[in-house]
Amino acid sequence: MQYIIKKIIILVTTLFLISLLTFATFNVVPGDPALLILGTEASPEKLQNLRVQLGTDKPLGTQYTDWLSGFVRGDFGNSIKYDQPVKDLIADRIPVTLTIALIALVIILFIGIFLGVYSAKKQNTLTDRVIGIFTMISISVPGFFLGILFIWIFGLVFKLFSPGQYVSYQEDFWGYLKVLFFPALAIAVPNIAILTKYLRSSVIGEIKSDYVRTAYGKGNKENHVLYGHVLKNAMVGVVPLIGMMVGDIFSGSIIVEQVFGLPGIGRLLISSITSRDFPLTQTLVVYIAAIVVIANFMVDIIIQIMDPRIRVQ
Length: 313
Prior knowledge:
Blueprint (H helix, E strand, L loop, with lengths): L1 H26 L5 H6 L5 H11 L5 H14 L12 H36 L4 H15 L2 H15 L15 H35 L2 H8 L4 H39 L4 H10 L3 H29 L1 H5 L1
């Protein structure tokens, strides 16, 4: 219990520092946000009205406390570009990004774990070398290029989906999943290669352990030993990598959503940056950072459950 409380304190402190750093980045740097948004030809009245709307007419300390208290209450302010509450904009876009992330994570775990264990099982064989070549190529190819490749192959050649066409989950749920599958796959492929490579090394290291020889000595079959004993211990060192992949999934979705023309958080972030919509940009940056931090917090808890020695330490 003390371990969990300690991690919660670290989580809250990290989120506080992220909010402080994000606020400082957008408000301490030289330049008037109102002037950057409206331009030098804007009238003093318009500039002052925008300063009041942004809250930049107040001292920095007051600006931060007002922004942080509003953030905690779920009041993120209004978007300058869209003239809508930021929370409504995020609520409209968040299902797309979260669905892509969830599909990508499921693909990564299922394929990455299977290939990692299978490659270790077939160590130094032709199959192992083929999987090794796949991982090297996949790690080298960026997600946005895979997105373009998937649009060409699966969209234009095989007609499995219509590039640039988005179907809401409220209209057609299966059509919605079909549209988001290939963007998720573009994000997943490089991470599958990384997970395969790390898990292969971890499994090979565990295979040499005494408990594996004991399990074989008791008459257990190879697959039972690999997936029932070795995989559990090998995953202890790989789970933190999966937590790091969550951040890569969300950062990758920023570009991939733009490539596929999907109305997700990533595309909204790019739009807010180009239009200098500071309230929206600040909220999205904190939102993405918070998801990554919370994901790593969950990873620490999962590792503690998987490896009781951490609780003792």
